[in-house]
Task: structure prediction
Amino acid sequence: MTFEEVDRESNRLANALASLGVRRHDAVGVVSENRVEYGLLLYACAKLGAMAATLNWRSAPDELAAAIVVAAPRLVLVSGRYRELFEAARSKTDGIRRVVLLDGAPMAQDEVAYDALMAAAGDQDPGIDVDPEDVVSLVYTSGTTGRPKAAAISQRAIVARAMVMAADMGLHAEESFIAWAPLFHMVSSDYLMIMGILGGKCFIAPGFDPEVLVDVMYKEPVAWLTLMPGTIEPVLEEVRRTGHRPLKLRLVGSMADLLSADLIAETTTVLQAPYFNSFGSTEAGTLPSSGTTIPIGVRPDRLSKRQSAFCDVRLVGDDGADVVGGEPGEMLIRTPTMFSGYVNDPEATAEVFAEGWYHTGDVMRRNPDGTLDFLDRSRYMIKSGGENIYPAELERVLRAHPAVLEAVVIKARDERWGEAPWACVAVRDDRITGDELIAYTGERLARYKRPRRVVFLRPDEFPRSETGKVIRHELEVLVGAKAGEKEVHS
Result:
């Protein structure tokens, strides 16, 4: 589609949504695989000053229902692929008055077909006087509690994120981006719009397909190929199989901290592009420290990161005072790319913006040359193949099992996904198996959140602090020593 066509069709969708009662500051939910209509929805919401609530189709029905309740959308766009999931979630909520079906025929009075809706709408600009602080997308992040929070990304934040990538990485109009990761993730929804702002091209792929990625890279200059742990090796294999080298690739990869140095060097050598040594978040975009790349063929012995442009950074200790020298501290940031808070969650918003700085929960150390080294997450979280897994959520599910006395989830290195959750449990009934507990969590949470392994411990084996809290890092060491024993189930 040309920019003119995108403009016209997003006008049409904006007018169609307005005809169904969508007004400025309303949320519009979407449960769909990546597709052109999804991209048009982002632009249509921008023109109305409305918010696209990008709902996660990997969720279990209960999780999706909770996310819907948080956003309270005026209506929801649903694809045929996820209609059954949506209906299961919808049965657990109240207040969804209209459903727009991207595929299939309406079967209820409150349903309308997307094609019919668009055919009846005009393509003139809706003429809404929007503000830079109007929220354009709601992107979900569970936080340390494991409960869904909708991060509000404003039009100002998206423009600023484009500005940072142009300044730090030189992205420009002659390049393209492949939105293959789910559009409910920041990386795809942000960069679909960022490439539009910069005048570039965006390919929308319905999911991860190495053949598609390699084919596009072979024919088109790509600004940044986003690859997460678990997706890199299949792309490298496809390049070797076809012999198709990228035409021009500026950056490849993300989350270098979760990869081996050998895999980073192999990736950059095969794809002939530097590795993007990124460190960002849903709330702040690719900031605060994504200004560094790893050169082609280099096996890095450290992953120090340069502070991003247009970003102020502080490192503070537990007392809230700035640390000195090379002492570790929690990273606090200020930047125009920052999100506007969590929708309908003032307490969580106030907590992360305490004293006017965004508290990332990430512990960093500043080196003498000004670069930053990531040390750990002060808010314990697991990054598995690009997905955030929060132990608190998985622990709640495990503790609800009648056989479980105690459950603590830790992160373990995983060759394919970077990190994976392991569950350490004490049980009342010795007859319960690890496989049964894994299946139990799979019925209540998305599949990627299931523990890869279950380790059975006695209650007195959990390492604890003076206050009785389990010390996760010590537990990781203990479980590592037990990994070959029969207590471990996968």
